[in-house]
UniProtKB/TrEMBL annotation:
Belongs to the cytidine and deoxycytidylate deaminase family. This is Cytidine deaminase. One of its GO terms (cellular component) is cytosol. This enzyme scavenges exogenous and endogenous cytidine and 2'-deoxycytidine for UMP synthesis. Zn(2+) binds at C72, C106, C109. It comes from Sitophilus oryzae. The keyword Hydrolase applies.
Length: 152
């Protein structure tokens, strides 16, 4: 097994330097974070997805005492948009509070989002000062994909 670590070149930007539509989804993710149901971890996460048509859908993490049946904020936001007929997405924002780190989407969320294509990813803390800007292909370079999309 290799000890090789992949170094991502972090692209950290000031919120105010981002386009207004990206500032908006980060703020909406922050608002959604306040609705998180997390009595077990007390770790609130909010997410907002910018759909290709310009609409935005936000979601929060929802925990359950049977841990595997909880839902992450990213999948919550995407699921709400998908249930409204949305299938094309431009960007996703994730907001959570870790003192020294940006909270990245978990592996399940990365794979879930990849079903709908590469999107810009904006990771921030509630204070919004710094934003890690990346994209889904960068944080999930070898996503599972089927070549048979006959189920559409």
């Amino acid at each position: 097994m290799s000890n090789c670590k992949r170094n991502l070149s972090p692209n950290i930007q000031n919120l105010k330097s981002l386009e207004s539509k990206y500032q908006s989804i980060i703020k909406q993710a922050t608002e959604a974070r306040e609705n998180a149901y997390c009595p077990y971890s007390n770790f609130k996460v909010g997410s907002a997805v910018l759909c290709a048509d310009g609409s935005v859908t936000a979601g929060c993490n929802i925990e359950n005492s049977a841990f595997p049946v909880g839902i992450c904020a990213e999948r919550c936001a995407y699921s709400k948009a998908i249930s409204q007929g949305k299938r094309q997405f431009e960007a996703v924002a994730v907001v959570a509070s870790q003192k020294d780190h940006f909270t990245m989407p978990c592996g399940a969320c990365r794979q879930f989002m990849s079903e709908f294509g590469n999107v810009d990813v904006f990771i921030s803390r509630p204070g919004h000062e710094d934003v890690l800007v990346t994209n889904l292909n960068e944080i999930l370079p070898f996503q599972f994909q089927t070549t048979d999309k006959t189920f559409e």
